[in-house]
Specification:
Shape: globular
Order of helices and strands: HHEEHEHEHEHEHHHHHHEHEHEEEH
Structural class: alpha/beta
Radius of gyration: 20 Å
Largest sheet: 6 strands, parallel
Helix content: 40-55%
Length: 361
């Protein structure tokens, strides 16, 4: 509550004084298109957040509020339109915005797609091609579900996790917690994803599944899109892009794995949908020189990150997005705040300095 009060007060002051717009200008974002990113779209945020990563959720009702606000201040355009305008250096008369959804959950088809179609809003969906049409859950989501379950049933979660690491012959990752005040499952999940390549993470998830398990109904809430859904969305004007095959953090993988996830996912989509795939979203938004080179070699026109760092040699392959969720536009007392949303669009809350990556090596 205190954090929200501070954020809301800061937003109101900066919007009233014009400081947020000045900050946008100083960061060379004046006139630049704003690309908003979402993940899952759910019916009831409170219920779904009980066993989900809350920052990946937005309710259908709140999504409508976001789109209404954006539509009053921006012209909605497709990613292809943004790419063309940036290539030509064309500055629009009115600010432009694009809407994107990551990971390819079927709830985007169920809850977001009808809104987009009714309002005539172009959008893009970035999918994990190995999961389309399956019942599998993205590894990061599965890992969070398992850790959340372990934290609820194990008397000493960190000791239990250390035991599994030892059984798998893995070195326990370093955390900033202690047995008496250990970090929670979300923090641990992030540390694991940002530290280990995909292969040991899959082994860890399998070991956790054998010990604590996750109910099938919980996984079913996260079922991926089907190929039939993608065909319908694409025919209705939704841009289909790649988010890799399986969502590894590419900066933690070797060259062969990076090429498989970037070029391979593009081939998958083009073969199944009969389209040219031009857009790629880096898993977790993370990129470095090797991943940018791989995306370029795969033939993508544009690629999207989650921070404000740009590669001057590849500006279209390091386009930034603002990732939004249910609480992104809330004010001090829990209601939708135009001032807070304005600061989101202006980049007031961007935290470039906290980005942990060396993007150039």
């Amino acid at each position: 509550m205190i954090r929200r009060l501070v954020k809301s007060g800061l937003a109101g002051g900066m919007r009233w004084s014009g400081a947020s717009l000045l900050k946008r200008t100083l960061r060379h974002r004046s006139g630049a298109p704003w690309i908003a990113g979402y993940h899952r779209v759910v019916e009831d945020f409170r219920r779904s957040s009980e066993n989900s990563i809350a920052a990946t959720l937005i309710s259908r009702g709140m999504l409508e509020r976001h789109l209404e606000w954006i539509g009053r201040r921006f012209d909605f355009v497709s990613l292809d339109d943004i790419g063309s305008r940036l290539e030509r250096g064309q500055r629009p008369r009115r600010p432009l915005a694009a809407v994107t959804f990551d990971d390819g959950y079927s709830d985007v088809y169920e809850h977001a797609f009808p809104i987009l179609r009714r309002r005539g809003i172009p959008a893009a969906v970035f999918v994990l091609t190995d999961l389309v049409g399956t019942s599998r859950v993205p590894l990061f989501d599965w890992l969070y579900l398992l850790l959340d379950r372990a934290w609820k049933v194990w008397p000493s979660p960190m000791q239990g996790l250390a035991r599994i690491f030892a059984d798998l012959g893995l070195e326990m990752v370093a955390t900033d917690g202690t047995p008496d005040a250990s970090p929670g499952p979300l923090r641990i999940m992030r540390i694991l994803l940002e530290t280990l390549p995909q292969s040991p993470l899959e082994r860890l998830a399998s070991a956790l599944q054998a010990e604590v398990g996750v109910e099938e109904c919980v996984q079913d809430e996260r079922r991926p899109l089907t190929w039939e859904m993608l065909v319908e969305m694409q025919r209705a004007g939704i841009t289909i892009g790649s988010h890799s095959r399986t969502h590894p953090l590419l900066t933690r993988e070797d060259r062969e794995k990076i090429l498989e996830e970037t070029a391979g996912s593009k081939r998958d989509l083009e073969a199944r949908l009969g389209i040219t795939v031009r857009h790629f979203a880096y898993p977790n938004g993370w990129f470095n020189a090797a991943t940018v080179r791989a995306v370029e070699a795969a033939g993508y026109r544009c690629a999207y990150t989650s921070c404000r760092h740009r590669d001057p040699a590849h500006p279209l392959l390091t386009l930034s997005r603002t990732l939004l969720w249910e609480n992104s536009g809330l004010g001090a007392f829990g209601g939708f705040s135009p001032a807070v949303m304005g600061c989101q669009a202006d980049g007031t809350f961007d935290r470039v300095a906290l980005c942990p990556l060396d993007h150039w090596n």
